[in-house]
Structure formats: structure tokens, C-alpha cells
Amino acid sequence: MCYFLLKISSPPEFEFLIFHTRTYERECTQKESPTKVGDSCLVEHTQQINQLYSADDRNKTADLNPIRDLLDKRQELSDQIEQMEQEKTAIEQQVKLQMQDAAYGTAPGYKVSWVSSESKRVDSQRLQKEQPDIFNQYSKNVSSRRFTIVHAA
Fold first, then answer.
1. pLDDT in the model for residue 41
2. Contact 103/114 with Cβ under 8 angstroms?
3. Radius of gyration of the chain (CA)
4. What are the pLDDT digits (tens) for 28-49?
5. Residue 105 · residue 98 · CB < 8 Å
6. 104 pairs with which residues across the strands?
7. pLDDT in tens, 8-17
8. Where are the alpha helices (DSSP H) in the chain?
9. How many CA within 13 A on the CB side of residue 136?
């Protein structure tokens, strides 16, 4: 099921809801599994939520008790993902040990590459220190809201 919740408190939010409800009906209702990772419906709804609530109210704290079960489920998934990432890394280390200095490896159904690459990047800290005018001339401010959940056992 593809859905999103929205608290309407002003006319622009109402217009936003109408527009995106139509988008939802057009794009999401015909999908088999709209909650899979990378699904455009999920991506769009995340962008919509971020756009709708782009500013925060630092004097406000939301009561999340009604969705505590969702937070517990998310923590469980995070723990599983972390364990899987560690297993994946251990397997990748074994593959690299098997490859040694080879750039490529093969096995039935697999092509593996472990190639060197180089790139140039600007050392922004050094540039800011040594050439602050140039740093400021080519810098831009980017605003976003950081979303984190900390499990306090």
C-alpha cells in the first residue's frame, strides 16, 4: 500500500495535498509493491514530506508514543541491517584476499572487479584557510533537515 499522512493547517498545505493525492492515485495505486526500496512512490513521498516540513520549530517536541511500535520495528530492522552489513563486509574481505593483486575475478554467475582509481578533490579546509576569498566566492549554503533516531535503551 502506498500512502502518506498529512496534517492540514493552511491553504497551501491543502493545495499540496490535492495535487499529490492526484499524483498518488495516478502513479501509486497501480503498483504491485509500492513499499519496496527505490520505489518512485516512496522516493516522491519522502521528497514531498521534506518539502512540506522543510523548516523546523525548535520549540516544539512531537509525541511519538502513538507510533512507538513503528520505532521498535525500525530499530529491529536497523539492527538486522547492521549485522548483514558486517557479514557482507567479511565476505568482501575474503573475496579480496582471494583476488590478491588481480584487478578482476570470475566465478560462475559473477564478475568481480577491484580496480585502482584516482580522483582529484578540493581540500576545502585548506582552501578556506589559505584563500578565504576564493572559498567564499565558490561556496554556497545548502539547507536541509537532518533526520536521526537514537535508540535509548
1. 82
2. yes
3. 23
4. 555 444 455 557 788 888 888 9
5. yes
6. 113
7. 555 555 566 6
8. 11-27, 40-52, 68-99, 124-130, 132-138
9. 5
